[in-house]
Each structure stands twice: as structure tokens, then as C-alpha cells.
Specification:
By secondary structure, the protein is an alpha/beta fold. Helix content is about 35%, strand content about 25%. Bound molecules: NADPH dihydro-nicotinamide-adenine-dinucleotide phosphate (NDP) and L-homoserine.
Amino acid sequence: MSSSALKIGLLGLGTVGGGTIAVLSRNADVIARRAGRPIEVVAASARDITKPRAFDLSGIALVEDPIELVGRPDVDVVVELIGGTTPAKDLVLAALENGKHVVTANKALIALHGNEIFEAAQRTQTMVGFEAAVAGGIPVIKAAREALSGNRIEWIAGIINGTCNFILSAMSEPGREFEPVLAEAQALGYAEADPSFDIDGIDAAHKLTILAAIAFGIPLQFESVFVEGIRHISRADVEYAARLGYRIKHLAMARQVADGIELRVHPTLIPTSQLLANVDGVMNAIMINGDAAGPTLYYGAGAGAEPTASAVVADLVDVARAFGSDSENRVPPLAFQADRLTDLPIVSMEALETAYYLRLHVLNQAGVLADVTRVLGAGGISIEAILQQESDPGAAIVPIIILVHPVPEHAMNQALVEIAALSQVHEPIVKIRMESLT
Ligand code: NDP
Ligand code: HSE
């Protein structure tokens, strides 16, 4: 074991920065035994370095200007835990140009600028670790990139935003409303600085961009991901889904099909018999289906100070082990050799074929259901189940829930336009995609 420590410059002293300092300090002995040398934070920077912190910063030089930190001669690895892309991107690129290795938990940065960052790392013969960027404490990057490298990966399905899962799980409990539950997720440090990134699906799309690149050997391409959040999901949908044997989850899907790759994040009905349907609270889980391994499932805390720090520290141990090694023989950041990525087409949502949950509000009168089912039948759409909520016999408008068998999305959309035009149907019509995960 080398006695010289791997020296860390830490950008960001918030939730994950604090967790990283705590884990490195508490587990210093086991980490050093695994890494082959101690790992020490020597310098740190934040927006306000005078702010009191709940963790011990003794022995760490506090640097006001983060750009100074990424150039310090006593820093071997820059750990970026600021978040967002400005100034994180410039700081990471500057660190790499200065010959520093980088570890980051920043999925927005990797999803949007990873291609440029990995190119800079290759040119400067430095390493970039980003295990913490996807699913917090779950080592899914390592699993997909290294442990499954003998497989053709067929699909990935994941619950990869803890805040959305926390909110959707709470919606199945009586008396819990959206806004207070979101505030709770923020107070617990799960939500992004701007929580609309969580509830509008952007954070999950950042993570799916990264997983898909690793799984299929395609360039990072956030702009190709179809993104739908959870704002339109009501407690009523959660209850109807449960009565029909499903849970609603915010699911990220990447699947190789004949015409290319599906890349999408949206609320999804999953049968309660599936393990993924039973992942609750802030927990995340990712299923990866490989042609050789079959389905494998990775479950754990997707957010929070120490779970995320666990992944940051694992990347630091990898850097310590590979420090000074020949850069040609390191694990490529996106699993595939940089010159062997393939630009497979991304399949349009119109071409997607899936089953759907529909919630309609219709006039409480004879013949309405017949009109709706006639439109579905004419569009070649087969009904799996219908649920008509018991209601006051005098109610003017009643909800009807319809599950339909898999159909191309363009046919579903066309039928919904025709159903919405029926005078007995009131808008909005809720449409939620379904997945059997088989
Ligand atoms: P926080 O908001 O808790 O912390 C951000 C830190 O960055 C703060 O210390 C802040 O300083 C500092 N900072 C902000 N802007 C600047 C700037 N311009 N220059 C220097 N420092 C700056 O964020 P988190 O710890 O929650 O998240 C950090 C990263 O980890 C993000 O990329 C996030 O997406 C990712 N992540 C977070 C998880 C979580 O559970 N929280 C899980 C997985 C990934 P100050 O304290 O002075 O305000
Ligand atoms: N805001 C993210 C989430 C943090 O809720 O999952 C973890 O990446």
C-alpha cells in the first residue's frame, strides 16, 4: 500500500458534498485498504465558504474561487458536487485540462455535455467517474458497463427519480397531497435545486440518456428522449390503477427494437406482480434485460447524502487503483470504445406500440360507452378491461376507466381525438402508458 494519499479537491459542500466528507472520514481505514492508499479531501469550494456546515471541515483548505481549486498542484482528483451545467461544465473541463481526474454526481452535466467531457478526458489521459449520477447509491453504471459486458442489452426499465417515486408512493396513502409531499422530499435533500427537474421528468431523462449510451453504445443524446412528468397524475388514477391490479410508477425505458432505440420517460402502469411495481418511497430500481444474463434487478436508495456519497467514494477508489495506469487500458466511460459508438436511430413515439390506461369523463346516459367502444373498435384497438366507478345515480358526469391492449401510439392518439369530439365526452382525457416488463 502506498503511503501517499490520493488528494481530493471538492467542489460543493451541500447534501452530497457533506455526505462525501462524512463517508471518507468515517470509513477512512477500509477505503484506504481497498484503494491501496488513503483518500483525503485537501481543499473545498462552495458558493459561500463562510457558511457554517454541519460536518467537520478541519484540515481542509477552503477556497473562495472554484477555478483556483481545479488548478491547485496538491489536488489529484476534482469531485464536482455543485450541480447544473454552469459553472460545473467549465470547472470540469478546466480540471481535465489541468490533468486532474474528475468524479461527479451531476447527471445533467454528463447527459448534456458528456460527449465533450469524455473527449477531453481521453485527450488529457484523465479519468471521469460518474457512478453517483444515476440512481444514487445503486452501482448500476458499473453493472451495466462492466458486469454485463458480455451481453447484448435488450432493454432497461428503471424507477430512477426518487422524488417522483416518493410522491407517487405517498399518493396511494390517504390524506397525503402533492405539494406537502414534494416539500418533504425537498427537506430530506432528495429533490433537485429546481424540483421541476424531478416532477417534469427531466432528471430521469438525464439519467436514462446515460444508461442508454452505456447499454447500447450510442452517443449521449438527451434531446432524443421523450419526457413526460407526473403533474397530470391524480390520486384517482392511482386508486383506479390499484383496483385493476397495477401501480403507477414514473418509468424510464430504453429498448432496442427492429427500427432503432426507444428512449422515453413517463408515468406507467406496471402490474403489481412485478418487483418494480413494489419499489416505494425514495428507493430506485433498475431492471436490465441482457440476452445472456436475462433480467437482472438493481435496487437501493436513489438519493440522499450518504447513499450518493457511497457512489462518489467508489469512483474515487477506482481512480486510486488506476492512478498512473496506461490510459489505453482503462474501462471506457460509456462501456464501448470511443471509436466504436454507433448512431442508431431513435424510434419516434408515434411508432411506439404499447398498452394504455384511459380515464374518460362522460355524460351519465345510455349509449355513451357504446359510442366510445365503437371508435376504439374502428381504430383496431382491443379493450382489455373497463371499470365504471359506482357513482350517485343522479350524477351528470361519471368517470370510466378503460385498459386497451398494445396498439401503435399514432392509432391511440387518433382514436382519442375522435373520442374527445363526442359530445358526451368531457375533456381532459387521461392517457397513461402500460408496461408488462416481460
Ligand atoms: P446542494 O444544493 O445541496 O449543494 C450544492 C453545493 O454547490 C453547495 O455547497 C453550494 O454552495 C455549491 N455551489 C452552488 N453553486 C456554486 C457555484 N457557482 N460555485 C461554487 N459552489 C457552488 O446539491 P446536492 O448536494 O443535492 O447535489 C449535488 C450534485 O449531486 C447535483 O449534481 C445533483 O444532481 C447530484 N445528486 C444529488 C443527489 C441528492 O440526493 N441530493 C443524488 C444524486 C446526485 P453553498 O452551500 O455555499 O450554497
Ligand atoms: N433529485 C434526484 C432524485 C436526486 O430525486 O432522484 C438523485 O439523483
